[in-house]
Amino acid sequence: MDEETQRPETTGTEGVVCALCGTGAGSDNAPPTWLCSVENGSLSYFCDNCARTHIRAIESRLDSAWW
Question: Would you state the pLDDT for residue 16?
Answer without folding.
Answer: 92
